Amino acid sequence: MSMYLEMVREGAEAEHEAVRVERRGDRATVTLADPERLNVLSAALVVQLKRALDDLAADPDLRTIVLTGEDPGFSAGGDLRMMERAAPDGVREAEGATDVWRWIRNEFGGVVRRIARTDKAFVAAINGPAAGVGLAFALTCDIAIASERAVLVPAFGRLGLLPEVGTSWALTRRLGYQGAFAFFAGGRHVDAHEAHRLGLVHEVVPHAELLATADAWADRIAQLAPHALAMTKPLLRGAADAPWEQALTMEEFAEPSCFTTAAFADAVREVAARSRAR
Question: Would you tell me how many other CB atoms lie within 10 Å of the CB of residue 36?
Fold first, then answer.
């Protein structure tokens, strides 16, 4: 059996709970729950996380998913035990490097694609260190908020790796090329307040208020018409790569559909009634 299939099987057969899901009405909190190892992305955690996100994405009543870690960290990133199995002395399978590619694409990539492509809003609640692929998961979310204990750790370079799992895309769009290169090459830990200044997180809050702040964002998102959230998320993600004219055209095609919805009609009547009352 290839290394990739072995890791998937190990993750699926793990008996311990590495990911905890709590649902409440139109929202859910997904907690990476292996705190003794700083929520490292083991086979068990990744397989359970991917399965949990797939289940939540299929729930039509869910609007917001909060992704966080069990204290003291968000995620230490890739599992060094798994990396040792993939290191040159350990690659003996016929699949060679493609075995690692399958894990990165199907498992790590499966998580970020689910975050980006589902019509739910994802809020990253970064409660402590977020490193490597764990950082990639946070940066892929629609909103990232950080506690004062959060630290962003660009761990790729010191391991001889590249920014992966969407990190290169996220960093260049927030920091520009030189800023992204400096973040990668410098390898310096970035605390919550500097991350906010750089635009890597939306806001910084006291640690004890982190999940309450995430819940407040879920309240705001709940006020959006369901179709508006479902349509705006892919529109904004597509516009990040589109020329101005193409972005304008996408908006022009999408907006008329909104005029046909009951939510729009009700909102217009409400605003008009308030205007007439004044």
Answer: 7
